Amino acid sequence: MTEPHILMCPPDYYGIEYEINPWMNRQRQSDHALAVRQWSALRTLLEASGAHISTLEPVKGLPDLVFTANAALIHQRRAILAHFRHPQRQGEEPFDEAWLTAQGFEVERVPSDVYFEGAGDALFCGDTLFAGYRIRSDARGHQQIGERLACRVIPLELVDPYYYHLDTCFCPLAPGRAIYYPPAFDDYGLRALRESVEELIPVCDDEARRFACNAVVVGRTVVTNAGCPELHAQLRAGGFEPRETPLDEFVKAGGSAKCLTLRLDGEEAASWRDCDRCH
Ligand code: ARG
User: Fold this and answer.
1) Which domains does the chain have, with CATH numbers?
2) Is the pLDDT of residue 10 over 80?
3) Catalytic residue selected from 165, 169, 213, 232
4) Residues 29, 16: contact at Cβ < 8 Å?
């Protein structure tokens, strides 16, 4: 069994330099020293949960590079590289590509007229890829990715600008089990989720705003921002070990625990992750 492997990027150049989602406001800057402490505490907690952390070198002028979840979608040794909707983040693409290539991933691109924001909008739960679209990623890109990876795709339209990436309102925990925030989806999306995931744990408005859904799953441990007690109680009842660490400085940019990580060996809930082990 391989050790869980996660990519993070230290917040040396993190800050609120532009506004590309409703959480961001240049008048509400992040406190740099506090952001560094919060990021380091998240890293320490993930290491204590059994994960090995690799780091991407920070780049001046790319404040959102810390959100490594958006770098790519990982499938075995393939990495489907992000193509960001906003020009402010497109400069990250060559750095993500260089790092993933150096690690031995086969890096693939989406067509240049398609936007795709990596694991922020594409999450495996079992054999299925759940794919958020409209605000950042395009539905068209998700279908093409499904064909390339030969997996079923369930497209989910995101309807609330505050929950602009799928990982802000949906988090697979294990095959058939996930956390979700219902108001972030339309009726069709809710029906699709309820038909395809047996156990869905709903998050309340207050905790959704604290980014409860933006959780990192490492084995049975589920790490979230501080201040999500209802979700934590539900997770404990379901046999998980929830942990919290304050990440408010990153909420100012519209991100939290999950956005700050990219699981390189496959998400806990992705069925393909077990394949190597069963052969
Ligand atoms: N400021 C970043 C953006 O708007 C935050 C990205 C958060 N990442 C995520 N996977 N939800 O793109």
Assistant:
1) 5-278 (3.75.10.10)
2) yes
3) 165
4) yes
